[in-house]
Design brief:
mainly beta, 13-stranded mixed sheet, 6-stranded antiparallel sheet, elongated
Length: about 550
């Protein structure tokens, strides 16, 4: 049941005959006024103070809107947040104002004609200086901090960020508000306010990714490859160019103890064939890539009729987080889950205003498997100098349908490697290849543990080369309770690997390819893949899209 509070501020202004004032503040950074800011306004008298941001464009309602009311009789304050047209919350704090401490300094200076004294405090390693005046016999500040000093006319944080008063006006009364609000505790208030500042699109919630013939689809989520793939259709709003987009996946073991390859991906469907056709009708229905080594690779490169999946995020499960936390070691407190979070703003054109298929896969052969939740969050930017971009999917050798017979990425044992031809219907400028690469082969001489150079050729010329390698895997030991321990004092999860660690995201790298004219082009990836040993073999999961203007 909601706690409802109706606020009438006009009554306060008549309790004490003191003058009411309105102080307007502006922000500046490193000596430059911040463009596009909404001024901070303080309305105050001897009984109460109200702090809010004044919108420049009163015809536009931007949520959330927040304001604070300080009751000077009880030395308490209430913070209010209007989260949407039909939801508002508030919290009350009766102790924080009296706990603030300051160092009082001897300097004085004039601001807007008033003599100001100086005080200082340190909050979270930030030094904050206050210039306040007693001349008007009232108190107030543009933030909760410093409310009891006097009338604060300037705040300086770390010497470079300044909130300064630019006008002081007399008021007949402090402006009243009437709100129907729900009371919440302080932590809930902060959480709801923070979450209201961006859009969260929930993709999967506690979804089990396992290997079982009992894994079935439902009305909203389709399951494939014996349950190792989950896919659903998602509608995205229009996203302003320059906005930030993040993908996050939370994972914990639901039975599987091993480090597995995971992919959070989208399925392009604008061509005649898509990866969804392969999921529904079998991997063999996808276009076949061959390079002369005798194997057939299904759905790994773009053709005139097909685009491969676009990986939003490549991630790797740790060794048994949560499910195997009972495997105790001295001075080790295991994590409850692993959170993977990555900026995917560069893929905005694939999502904005579109209804697309989003999927998640963890390759495993365990009936319990893994449990995952996944979201995409959109953080809008009001003004941006970012330019519109185009995206051309090229390749993905990550065999997402491994448990349905899709071939491993072993095409690099041939000098042709991976080669894809593509056609641009118009020129592209400032092109970058968004490239994800990880090496696999989990024995001593496998490519998982042996550095190998990746070389990218564009139209027959070498464009870029590097050796993908991660040396920080030991940083994630507390996410790997079931990791094997060896006689040399290392755990399996400590070992360096070919661009991945158990329990981490593999970040894409962005390779500058310059400008390309309209017409036909070829891109090739060469990796010196290691030879098999007995039943063990190496493979490479690589994916790439072109991003350009």
């Amino acid at each position: 049941m909601k706690n409802l509070l109706f606020i009438f501020l006009l009554g306060f202004s008549g309790v004490i005959s003191a003058q009411n004032y309105r102080i307007t503040y502006q922000r500046s950074s490193n000596g430059t006024i911040i463009e596009g800011q909404d001024p901070i306004v303080v309305e105050t008298n001897a009984s109460l103070t109200k702090v809010y941001n004044k919108a420049k464009d009163l015809t536009v309602t931007n949520y959330p809107q927040e304001f604070t009311i300080i009751d000077r009789v009880s030395s308490s304050f209430q913070q209010f947040a209007i989260l949407s047209i039909d939801k508002a919350i508030y919290m009350k704090d009766s102790t924080s104002l009296n706990k603030q401490t300051f160092e009082y300094l001897p300097e004085t200076k004039k601001i807007l004609g008033y003599t100001c004294k100086k005080a200082k405090t340190i909050v979270n390693s930030n030094t904050i200086e206050f210039w306040y005046t007693d001349d008007l016999k009232i108190k107030g500040a543009p933030t909760i901090l410093g409310q009891n000093l006097g009338l604060v006319l300037e705040m300086v944080r770390n010497g470079n960020f300044v909130i300064s008063a630019v006008a002081i006006d007399k008021l007949k009364a402090i402006r009243s508000n009437e709100l129907k609000t729900q009371k919440v505790d302080a932590l809930t208030y902060k959480d709801l306010l923070w979450k209201s500042r961006f859009t969260t699109i929930s993709i999967f919630k506690d979804q089990v990714i396992n290997f079982s013939n009992e894994s079935k689809s439902n009305d909203s989520i389709l399951r494939f490859a014996n349950g190792t793939i989950a896919v659903r259709k998602v509608k995205f709003p229009e996203i302003t160019i320059g906005s930030q987009i993040f993908a996050d996946v939370t994972e914990q073991s639901n039975g599987d103890a091993y480090d597995r390859t995971g992919s959070f991906f989208m399925i392009p469907t604008e061509k005649a064939l898509s990866f969804l056709d392969g999921l529904q009708n079998g991997a063999k229905t996808l276009p076949i890539y061959t390079n002369g080594n005798g194997k057939e690779y299904q759905g790994v490169v773009a053709t005139e009729q097909y685009n491969p999946v676009v990986e939003l995020m490549r991630f790797f499960t740790p060794f048994g987080v949560k499910q195997y936390n009972y495997l105790e070691l001295k001075d080790k407190t295991w994590a409850e889950n692993v959170l993977y979070r990555q900026d995917i703003s560069d893929l905005l054109p694939l999502l904005s205003g579109k209804e697309v298929w989003i999927g998640i896969n963890i390759g495993n052969y365990d009936k319990g498997g893994h449990k995952v939740s996944a979201n995409i969050t959109i953080h809008s930017e009001g003004e941006s100098k970012a330019k519109p971009t185009r995206i051309v999917p090229l390749f993905c050798t990550n065999n997402i349908m491994e448990m349905a017979g899709q071939e491993y990425g072993t095409m690099f044992n041939n000098e042709k490697g991976l080669e894809v031809s593509f056609t641009l219907d118009q020129p592209m400028k400032n092109i970058k290849l968004r490239y994800i690469t990880t090496g696999h082969g989990g024995w001593e001489n496998g490519d998982e543990f042996v550095p190998k150079k990746n070389t990218i050729y564009l139209n027959g010329k070498e464009a870029f080369g590097f050796t993908p390698w991660r040396q920080d895997c030991g940083s994630y030991r507390l996410s790997n309770p079931a990791s094997g321990n060896f006689g040399n004092g290392l755990s399996s999860s400590d070992y360096s690997r070919s661009n991945w660690c158990p329990g981490t995201v593999t970040n894409p790298i962005f390779i500058d390819l310059g400008n390309l004219p309209a017409g036909n082009h070829t891109l090739k990836v060469i990796i010196p893949q290691g030879l098999p040993e007995g039943g063990s073999f190496s493979s490479w999961n690589i994916s790439g899209v072109l991003i350009g203007e």
